Description:
It is a single chain. With 252 residues, the chain is mainly beta. It folds into three domains: 1-113, Jelly Rolls (Sandwich); 114-215, Immunoglobulin-like (Sandwich); 218-251, no CATH class. The protein is built from one helix and 18 strands. The strands form four sheets. Strands 10, 11, 12, 13, 14 and 15 form a six-stranded antiparallel β-sheet that branches. It is globular and about 75 Å long. It starts with a helix and ends with a strand.
Amino acid sequence: MTFILALLITMISCEEATRITPNEYCNFLPGNTMWYTFNTDDPTLVSIITAGNGDGRMELFKGECDSLVYVTEDDDSGPFLMPQIQFETEEDVDYYVKVTGVDLFEICVFTCGPLPVELISFKGYEEGKYIKLKWTTASEINNRVFQIYKSPDTVSWEILGQIPGNNNSSFILNYVYHDYQPWNGELQYYKLVQIDYNGTTTVLGILPIFSKKEFKTLVKEIGIDGQPITKDYNGIRVKIYSNKTVEKVIYE
């Protein structure tokens, strides 16, 4: 089994892999190539995150292209889910990331210091008419609250809401947050922030999600001159939706 796996790996070339420099913060690199590579001089806790327009798979190898060694993978089934891997690197070892199953995606590699919250996963996907964000913690220390932010470009952020933390915990805990106003047909970024009781703020992760569905809900109906109307009103009704679209309908 090991021989077959090694043979398959060496048959796939990674000589032209795009090199990524791990950053303290997650800076996404747009791309559509299969292979990416990076190196850390010292052992470092690293997170690799991708976002794509399909059911992508991300595989991690180490070594040289002609003798790659399989490390791990993440195969998140379901549209718009984000494959991610977190692991501790070895000293001065080349790592290769292979991305498959998507035509358009973004990737980033960022280093992680000791955190007050040990995050197992931070994921999101479309569900019905909203984006569902989920994260799981293995432990929490002095954790007061989680805050969720949203951005079109990872530069300007707006806060969506917050969820109380569990102070001190050594158990696995699951959290959920719903964004009921996703940006239709656009790439949007979600940032998970943790604040402790001393006021210290820590960014736990940044999650890119493609929203493809045309989400909209009816906000209100008015008459053609802007006047309030009842459900029995006959004439031109102006329907205003949550995605800022307007529709005129004649009721007779």
